[in-house]
């Protein structure tokens, strides 16, 4: 019984630690993580990669500053949604037609996964693979 409790405690602790690491990423780490997934799934060329990295870096900085400002959560949510929309438009303008289709599928898959996990309000999915 003691072993079972010890194992359960260790598993819970390691799961909490792993989750904390995901939530505590800097903007640069989040952008790098997203870019790895995009490069893998969309087969971006060097020019596209650079442009999208710049778009994501700018978005990450703005997202962090909005999240730091807790004054008006409703206004922040609206601003985050607008930021996500403009970022998506910029990213799509860099992609080819085939890449846009793949990107849309990737976002839908990510959104469905988040919804399944109980994060239905995820308008700006972080792209993971």
TrEMBL record:
Species, as recorded: Mucilaginibacter antarcticus
Lineage: Bacteria, Pseudomonadati, Bacteroidota, Sphingobacteriia, Sphingobacteriales
The keyword Coiled coil appears for this protein: yes
Keywords: Coiled coil, Signal
Protein name: LTXXQ motif family protein
Region described as Disordered: spans on this chain: 107-129
Coiled-coil intervals, chain numbering: 63-90
Signal peptide residues on this chain, from the entry's feature table: 1-20
